[in-house]
Amino acid sequence: MATAGKVIKCKAAVAWEPKKPLVIEEIEVTPPQANEVRIKIVATSVCHTDLYHLLEDEAGFPTVLGHEGAGIVESVGPGVTEFQPGDKVIPLFISQCRECRFCKSPKTNQCENAWSGRDPQMMASADSRFTCKGKKVLQFVGTSTFSEYTVVNQIAVAKIDPTAPLDKVCLLGCGICTGYGAAVNTAKVEPGSTCAVFGLGAVGLAAVMGCKAAGAKRIFAVDINPDKFEKAKVFGATDFVNPKDHDKPISQVLAEMTNGGVDYSLECIGKVDIMRSALESCIPSWGVSVIVGWTDLEDFSARPVQLIAGRTWKGSLFGGFKSKDGVPQMVKDYLDKKVKVDEFITHNMTLDQVNDAIELMKQSKCIRTVLSVSPQ
Fold it and tell me: Where is the Enoyl reductase (ER) domain (predicted)?
């Protein structure tokens, strides 16, 4: 492409400081360095993790947020052989180098090279190819998809089917894989089992979909917003429980409805008190509870006896998918109509409307808003 090897000036939504609206700016994106890929972002969606960094973190600014996107390779740096200009790709916030001990182990989807040269406590990295008004702009979780162009290490890029619609499959960069995989890969839901999913945002609805795909007999959708129940039914929920309708703990309600507790529970909100409720909703002898919702603000707690009898409490990041392997397969499953994606999209906007999309998510008035970033 004509832009290869040159600095690209393009539009991006810059978060200059925490808790403030994003600003549409012209930024400079330098060419990819060794083992890097420069991607033209076609579509991206807004995820709660973007809001978490914007509203809860104090460090890591200015930055370009966004990590649920899809685009087309514009150019590649030295040493890149897996990708070429024109490839359809999804940037990944979890890398897969395929060489480290983590990547070679079936026990984890983490990669030891994921945070090479970065502070693992910070979601935004100074190892960035962005500048704006003469200032370095940090890259968010290695992706930064709220920009017309971004530069990503090749170990954090998945090549996908060239027929895939980018304005749909961008959602597979985070939320859908996170929830679906938490049920299928992490909880390992079994046919005929009972499940409870706490929180019916995109991740929770994807977890419901994963429970159904795994053959669960009853799937309890738990949320304080009854408007979400009809949507949950689309993804496979069989029962709906609103904690506000009961004067006893939700764990007790579910235990009474299931003869002692569910086999599997998934917390998809990121609140420590709900994590405990989800654990206590499992049957004591063999229940498995998975923490899916992201937070790093508070400690969580439980009494040892809640685990001693046989419960398992575990976490799930990106649904346990090894990213470069899992995302292309999920795209294929979508094209083969094995998983739903379109049903998660409630709004379509442009990058210029990113603050409106953020406001919709803050007010829980959307599941996913897809932003059109660049023409294909």
Answer: 20-371
| CATH 3.90.180.10-classified regions of the chain | 8-173+340-372
Residue among 80, 49, 63 at smallest CA distance from 150: 63
User: Which one, of 349, 323, 252, lies nearest residue 67 by Cα?
Assistant: 323
CA distance 61 to 129: 15
- The β-bridge relationship of strands 63-64 and 8-15 is antiparallel
For the cut 60, the answer to whether the pLDDT of residue 116 exceeds it is no
Q: Which helix (H) or strand (E) holds 135?
A: strand 135-140
Class of the 8-173+340-372 domain?
A: alpha beta
Question: What pLDDT score was predicted for residue 1?
Answer: 65
How far apart CA 271 and CA 291 sit, in angstroms, is: 10
Query: Is-contact 28 13, C-beta < 8 A?
Result: no
Q: What is the pTM of this model?
A: 0.93
In sequence order, the 6+-apart residues with CB closer than 8 A to the CB of 217 are 191, 192, 193, 194, 238
Question: How far is 263 from 284, CA to CA, in rounded Å?
Answer: 9
The architecture that CATH gives domain 179-316 is 3-Layer(aba) Sandwich (3.40)
CATH 3.40.50.720 range(s) for the chain read 179-316
